Amino acid sequence: RFLHNTFSENIYINKSLLVNDFSDMDADSPRGKKAFCPENELFLFCFTALFQKHSQFLDEKAITKELNYTELECTKQHSLSKDKVWSCCPKDWKPFSSHCYFTSNDSASWSESEEKCSSMGAHLMVIHSQEEQDFITKTLDPKAAYYIGLLDASHRQWRWVDQTPYNESATFWHPGEPNNDKNNEECVVIRHLSSKWDWNDIPCNCMRKSVCQMKKIYL
Predict the structure, then answer these.
(1) What is the dotted CATH code of the domain comprising 2-218?
(2) Which of 109, 173, 181, 188 is buried deepest, with most CB atoms within 10 A?
């Protein structure tokens, strides 16, 4: 059983890897045998991982999620640190920087969308840079709008679901937004308008698609 602890995430692997190319390991090791290695160093690991994620939401209480991923897609890291060889995302999630992203095409309210992300050990997407926004919008349908993890539940201050600071200088609102139309627009979507992807505040009960985000799993 393999145990690795990083970024407040514990990963327990209870089945052997089916791909066993670990050329940097001892040749006598049961995992040290040569196997086919794709040029792009992207490996599909088929194993069962029990992933315990500790997340802190708006009520500032820690919530533990236990997930069962049957497949991870991992990329070998070129790092001097020997204890972090692979960075992984669950299958069908897209990697960028230190996170993984999943686009849900099912329409739901903001709270239902956040609950779905939470059930996967994630939260609605938090955006802190233009590069991050440009990455995810390349995969989105320009005819749809997608919930992100920003809301103004108190009508006083915008807050991210992961409790990272809301930085006014690193926001990407459409012109004239947020406008809190009819005093009931407390949630945020990212949408394509006037040839550009940016943010718009809307009522939280609107049915929209969403983007989930979680930290990468390091092995």
Answers:
(1) 3.10.100.10
(2) 188
